[in-house]
């Protein structure tokens, strides 16, 4: 690669990032289950379980993002391809946004449930979850692209 910079400093360890995604099957399964349940009308009797599953997913998501940030991303003081650094910086910062957004969703669902507003909750939660799921999947898709870009750069840079 001829275009290198020292100004942007975030990069990824593509092998670690890929492995974190591959071993986190519980998270993907929870997401798939909730996606399925939220794609059809939700019975009010399901709300208690739904609130539990959402809360569980929040914990799984927190762990997933924490692992990615601890082992998948790192601040690189040397040369990083600028396009890759920009993408990495952006994607890493999305974790906090996604987590806050989902945490708000879960808090609100819990409040509605404990206030006895299960009918309102059953109507509200499906579209909100699917909307979040869409954004999370977009993040994951772009992070997977970043992994492949980073592998390419590793091969391309040489020495
Ligand atoms: Fe991520």
Q: Summarize this, please?
A:
The protein has 159 residues and is mainly alpha-helical.
Report on the structure:
This protein has one domain (10-157): Up-down Bundle (Four Helix Bundle (Hemerythrin (Met), subunit A)), CATH 1.20.120. It starts with 9 loop residues before the first strand and ends with a helix. It has helices at residues 14-23, 25-38, 47-72, 82-114, 118-157; strands spanning 10-12, 73-75. The chain is 77% helix and 4% strand. Fe (ii) ion is lined by residues 68, 91, 95, 139, 143.
Summary tags:
159 residues, elongated, mainly alpha, 2 strands, binds fe (ii) ion, two-stranded antiparallel sheet, Four Helix Bundle (Hemerythrin (Met), subunit A)
Poorly predicted residue ranges: none
| Ligands | fe (ii) ion
CATH T-level topology: Four Helix Bundle (Hemerythrin (Met), subunit A)
From the alpha-carbon coordinates, what is the Rg to the nearest angstrom? 19 Å
Number of helices: 5
Q: What's the level 1 CATH class?
A: Mainly Alpha
| Major sheet attributes | 2 strands, antiparallel
Number of strands: 2
Structural class: mainly alpha
Q: What pattern of helices and strands is seen along the backbone?
A: EHHHEHH
Give the distance, in angstroms, between the N- and C-terminal Cα atoms. Answer: 10 Å
What order do the strands of the largest sheet run in, or round the barrel if closed? Answer: 1-2
**Percent range of helical residues:** over 70%
Average pLDDT across residues?
91
- How many separate domains? 1
Per CATH, the architecture is Up-down Bundle
Gross morphology is: elongated
Strand content: under 5%
């Amino acid at each position: 690669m001829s275009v290198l910079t020292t100004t942007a400093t975030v990069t990824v360890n593509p092998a670690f990032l890929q492995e974190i995604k591959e071993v986190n099957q519980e998270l993907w399964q929870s997401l798939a289950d909730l996606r399925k349940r939220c794609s059809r009308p939700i019975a009010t009797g399901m709300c208690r379980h739904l609130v539990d599953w959402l809360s569980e997913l929040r914990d799984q998501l927190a762990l997933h993002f924490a692992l990615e940030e601890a082992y998948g991303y790192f601040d690189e003081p040397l040369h990083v391809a600028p396009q890759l650094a920009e993408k990495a910086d952006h994607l890493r910062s999305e974790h906090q946004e996604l987590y806050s957004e989902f945490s708000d969703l879960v808090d609100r669902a819990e409040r509605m449930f404990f206030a006895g507003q299960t009918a309102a909750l059953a109507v509200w939660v499906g579209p909100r979850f699917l909307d979040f799921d869409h954004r999370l999947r977009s993040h994951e898709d772009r992070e997977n692209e970043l992994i492949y870009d980073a592998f390419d750069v590793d091969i391309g840079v040489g020495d």
